Amino acid sequence: MKIEKNERLLYKLTIVILTFNRPQYMLRSMKYWSGKGPIVHVLDGSVESISSKDLANMESNIRYHHMPVSYNERFVYAQNLSKSEYTTFIPDDEFLIPSALNSCISELDNNVSLVSCIGRCILFNHDKGSLRLRVRSVYEKMANYSVQHNNPDDRVLYHMKHYVPSMVYSVMRTNIWKHVLSCVTSKTYKVTSLEELQFEIASSYLGKSKVLPILMWLRSGENKGIGNDVTFKSINDWWSDSLNDNFREQMLDELTHKILANQDKTNISHVKKIITKSFEMFIDRPKRQLPIKSIVIFQVARLLSMLPRVIKDILKRPAHTTYYNLNDFYDIDLTIKQLEMEEVSVNLDELKDIESTVVDFHNNLSDK
Fold first, then answer.
1. Are the C-beta atoms of residues 78 and 8 closer than 8 Å to each other?
2. Cα 50 to Cα 28, 47, 56, 72, distances in angstroms
């Protein structure tokens, strides 16, 4: 696919970043986007704000909001921020490739039936002063994926049956993005990734989506996810627990009414049945079997965690190297060859820019 190099398209885009207690990664992301074109709103839920000195070094496209409130409250607040034609989310430690964003904006400009567009995703981490990348097992189903059905019922059911998170971090038309955000619950049900599932269901109901064969999203392996709470249940456990029947119906009613806001309310019962079925299809979809290699890595890591700290410190470097080798992490050149075999376009200059940003970041961390 041809890489779109019209940088003026980025001025049509707003990026929203939600962050919590990761000031170094938040600043890295802000510096990366500073002066690049899109308006970037950073919603920081940390108790302490970043310093005015750090903010003074940012270009005017970076907008910082100190909001020490819940993730859900910041999610809701984000609805009012974007004034541009298109909007996207990104976690505070991850990267989007600007030229791929351009390609998504161009696709949306040229295809009015689409509400959402995204490129391919790979996992990255840092090791020995270089960017390490992994293509396999990172949303492989995004390859050639699209949800193009004309009927909204068909779109939702197809998407949740073949689930891949292709919309939550996509470039979306802002009016649709705001509508979708309004559908995400403001209540805390303590269900892992419930907000993501609500976002994907609402998005697929409200319009068509497409994944382009171009590298766009670099997902970070540097940190544990924000908001991973041991008290949260998986959607499978929460859904099947009869003690949650009333909460489940409440959530489904709220989601259905919000999706149908400003639409004909005569089919509320039907749409609720479709949404209920979509959750059930997601829960019942075949579980991906972990390869033996991944199971071995997990068990070895668990055993290493039980060792005394002095021994763990000695084994840390060789264990780290072995982990990357076993998990098929490659350098940029090998990664590009692999992506090219899959006919995925890559902007090498921008990928190298991200590598420089990540390497410098970790070098500075190790110097402190």
1. no
2. 12, 10, 11, 21
